[in-house]
Amino acid sequence: MSTVLITGASRGIGAQCALSFAKAGYDVALNYCRSEAKALALVKEIEALGVKAFAVQADVADSAQVKGMFDAVRKELGAADVLVNNAGIAHVGLLTDMTDDEWRRLIDTDLSGTFYCCREALADMIRAHSGVIVNIASMWGEVGASCEAAYSAAKAGVIGLAKALAKEVGPSGVRVNAVSPGVVMTDMMAGFSDEDVAALKDETPLTSLGSPEDVADAVLFLASEKARFITGQVLSVNGGMVI
């Protein structure tokens, strides 16, 4: 039985990844920062599928908490065979209005948190000469977005980290890739009006927006043996909005 650790797994794309991996037969470790009730409810839903599930609280921006999270997962489910770095926050606004604390918090969560998790996971994966890491990036990490400069920078870093690590740990039997979602209908879209959503659909060549399942399917594929010869790549799941 393989084990997957998914950060930011209490809702949205992370929660759907947890369900998709469970349906594929993985034991699932679900990381959450604050949404304990949602994480515990998801554990029950996953356990009903006949696999093990374990919810573990940690702020990925804190390297000590990340280490504690991995120690807890090893004790409960064994070392993670797959790591999905999904935890992240966003910030919308002019860069000139962004405070030092806002910048630091976003970079610490989205980029440093991915680094901390990769470092912990690789200790086990390199020893086992096997493992997969999938970083959840963003199309804005590929092309940049006005009024989301910090988020774009962090996600560009996540992509660069995946590409560099793929070269570094490939000889150790570990694959590292990134999935780059476009506009996906999660609760983060709650503030968008119907008109906003319609406009985003019009901007997308496939004339529809993505679902968490679309992203989870891409992540699961990259973690599978079907992708055994794929590493250091960015799989864009954006309906053609960014090409």
Summarize the structure.
The chain has 243 residues and is α/β, with parallel strands linked by helices. It has helices at 12-23, 36-47, 63-77, 100-128, 139-143, 149-169, 194-203, 212-223; strands at 3-6, 27-32, 53-57, 82-85, 131-136, 174-181, 234-237. Helices cover 48% and strands 15% of the residues.
Largest sheet: 7 strands, parallel
Low-confidence stretches: none
Overall pLDDT metric: 97
Could you spell the SSE succession in H and E letters?
EHEHEHEHEHHEHHE
**Shape field:** globular
* Assigned CATH architecture: 3-Layer(aba) Sandwich
Superfamily (CATH H level) name = NAD(P)-binding Rossmann-like Domain
Can you offer a commentary on this structure?
With 243 residues, this protein is α/β, with parallel strands linked by helices. The chain has a single domain (3-233), classed as 3-Layer(aba) Sandwich (Rossmann fold), CATH 3.40.50. The chain is 48% helix and 15% strand. The chain has 8 helices and 7 strands; from the N terminus they run βαβαβαβαβααβααβ. It has helices spanning 12-23, 36-47, 63-77, 100-128, 139-143, 149-169, 194-203, 212-223, and strands spanning 3-6, 27-32, 53-57, 82-85, 131-136, 174-181, 234-237. The chain has a 7-stranded parallel sheet, with helices on both faces. Helix 4 (100-128) packs parallel to helix 6 (149-169).
Topology overview:
Elements: E1 3-6, H1 12-23, E2 27-32, H2 36-47, E3 53-57, H3 63-77, E4 82-85, H4 100-128, E5 131-136, H5 139-143, H6 149-169, E6 174-181, H7 194-203, H8 212-223, E7 234-237
Parallel strand pairs: 1-2, 1-4, 2-3, 4-5, 5-6, 6-7
Helix pairs in contact: 1-2, 1-8, 3-4, 4-6
